[in-house]
Amino acid sequence: MFATRIAKYARHAASFMLHFAHGGLLVAGLIVTLFIASRIANHGVQGLSLGSLGGESSVSTAVVDEPVVEPVVEVAETPAKLSPDLQRVKAYVAKRYQVSAVALEPLLAAAQQTGRSVGVDPLLIVAVMAIESRFNPFAESPMGAQGLMQVIPKWHPDKIDVKADRSAMFDPHTNIRVGALVLKEYIQTTGSIERALQQYNGSSDPAAPYANKVMAVKAQLSQAARSGGKFVGA
Questions:
Q1: What are phi and psi of 151, to 5 degrees?
Q2: What domain count does the chain have?
Q3: Per the domain annotation, does 184 fall within a domain?
Q4: What DSSP letter does each residue of 151-193 carry, written as one string?
């Protein structure tokens, strides 16, 4: 009887130890698993950090290695300075035609520069502007004459293409250049400034009223240039 109890207790003890051992193994296994997972996670984070650092280093190196491109600074052309004669003409024209002297200066500078390059007296160009538009760069006639020198673009397709820019003739520099080229051409073909002016006006009147009017203004401009701009003609 006693031996039977001893055997029973021994079986219970053995069973308890077996369960304990099994549970212990599970706990140990869980601990080992958590430890390994933690190491893997730490390794991944470190790898990612190193990768990020490596990326930053690469980008930084690329930036340092790239050549430095200096910005291109466009320097505006210095406007042509008016000659002393045209400075005096400016004062005269501003008073005679009631136009701002400040607004006149670039127009007279363009006439001066274009006249010299084309081979037409700048004062003749200024006189034509006075008669044709009274220095209004936006003037337009019913016949389609445009700008300061009242050029009709369709008559001079070799000198200006307004199909690309219909407002081209309202640019003072363009208008003065084209007008001066037309005058130069007519002077060469007619052999006379007066006849060239009549052709510029589209008139065949032998009395040449247009030419006489332009030449009278040119004479006033010449006198103003010599007298300090004080002379004011009728």
A1: -85, 135
A2: 2
A3: yes
A4: B-GGG-TTT--TTT-TTGGGSHHHHHHHHHHHHHHHHHHHS-H
Identify whether the C-beta of residue 125 lies closer than 8 Å to the C-beta of residue 114.
Answer: yes
Reported in sequence order, the residue ranges of 27-68 that DSSP labels E, i.e. its strands, are none
Q: Name the domain boundary from 75, 94, 118.
A: 75
Q: Among 58, 75, 92, which residue terminates a domain? A: 75
Element containing residue 221 per DSSP (H, E): helix 209-227
pLDDT in tens, 82-134: 999 999 999 999 999 999 999 999 999 999 999 999 999 999 999 999 999 99
Q: What is the DSSP letter of 120?
A: S
**CA gap 225, 114 in Å, rounded:** 19
Assessment of whether the complete model's pTM goes beyond 0.90: no
**Measured between alpha carbons, how far is 51 from 65 in angstroms, rounded to an integer?**
21
Domain identity same for 126 and 192? yes
Half-sphere exposure at residue 171, Cβ-oriented, CA atoms within 13 angstroms = 11
Residue with tokens 């984070």: 45
β-sheet bridge partners, residue 162: none
Domain range for 15 is 1-75
Q: How many CB atoms lie within 10 A of CB 195?
A: 16
CB-neighbour burial class of residue 98 (10 A; exposed 0-12, middle 13-18, buried 19+): exposed
Spatial distance between the Cα atoms of 67 and 61, rounded to a whole number of angstroms: 12
As a whole number of angstroms, the distance between CA 73 and CA 79 comes to 18
